[in-house]
Design brief:
The protein has helices spanning about 5-15, 25-35, 40-45, 115-120; strands spanning about 50-60, 60-70, 75-80, 85-90, 95-100, 105-110, 140-145, 150-160, 165-170, 175-185, 190-200, 205-215, 220-230. By secondary structure, the chain is of the alpha+beta class.
């Protein structure tokens, strides 16, 4: 690419944002626009917990109900019904566990390191860009692209554990259009593309009510829709901890057993 093209591209951005401090300030401007579009910094700082319910597509025509619960800092549980049995995956901020009856795993057991990293990296209530610097997210500007006829700005986010994400922001609304994620499965890396749509307001927050995801090399797209959102519902911290085995607990009479 010719140097003149690179300079011209930066000048276009500079004319939009009135910035002369390089791409770092361009990134700051895009993050600020995104946070404001999603409800504003104050609104998100006042969120301690979230609960979302809806339906998701597991493939081959199977659509199941799910519940996602999140709580600061870094706690998240996902539950869904499959073949009349409840599957659960939870992270607490420093560990994770799962119950997956459809895979023959009917008792709570720790996640693998990779499973924990993948879920923990997605557990933040605020998304990837809010308070990015404070949370150790390194954000850089990649360039301008067009997705489905919309102009977008592409940002790269490096998370504290080293994982990378690529976010595409709508040039007009500053809302997320698409997220690219790299997952490692069976020793191979795969690109996962996720599109966000149907943004709706809930208690002053703007939240996407539909996600469509597709893995590299696959023809099938999987969707997730949101039917309800509860902001700051009471959720006990024990909700996210791995359940004790039956018969375990404190006290002589085992009154704290599950």
């Amino acid at each position: 690419m010719a140097l003149a093209t690179v300079v011209a591209g930066f000048l276009v951005l500079d004319s939009i944002y009135g910035l002369t401090g390089g791409f770092g300030r361009v990134v700051d401007g895009l993050i600020a626009r995104n946070v404001e579009a999603r409800g504003g910094a104050d609104a998100w700082r006042n969120v301690d917990s979230l609960r979302m319910t809806g339906r998701m597509d597991l493939g081959q025509g199977m659509h199941v109900p799910y519940t996602i619960e999140q709580k600061r800092p870094g706690k998240m549980c996902i539950e869904f019904m499959f073949d009349s049995e409840l599957a659960t995956q939870c992270v607490t901020g420093d560990s994770g566990w799962k119950v997956l009856p459809f895979m023959g795993r009917t008792r709570p057991e720790p996640m693998t390191d990779m499973e924990y990293r993948d879920m923990a990296d997605a557990a933040g209530i605020d998304g990837l860009l809010f308070d990015a610097a404070r949370r150790g997210h390194e954000v850089s500007f990649v360039g301008e692209e067009t997705i489905d006829g919309r102009d977008v700005y592409k940002l790269e986010v490096v998370l504290p554990r080293g994982a990378k994400r690529w976010i595409y922001l709508d040039a007009e609304t500053a809302l997320e259009v698409k997220l690219d994620t790299i997952r490692t499965r069976n020793g191979r890396q795969h690109l996962i593309e996720t599109w966000y749509s149907d943004w709706r307001e809930q208690d002053g927050l703007l939240i996407p009510h539909r996600q469509d995801s597709k893995a590299e090399g696959e023809s099938e797209t999987h969707w997730l829709t949101v039917d309800s959102v509860a902001v700051n519902p009471p959720i006990d911290d024990d909700r996210f901890n791995i359940p004790l085995p039956v018969g375990a607990g404190s006290g002589a009479n085992g009154s704290n057993t599950l």
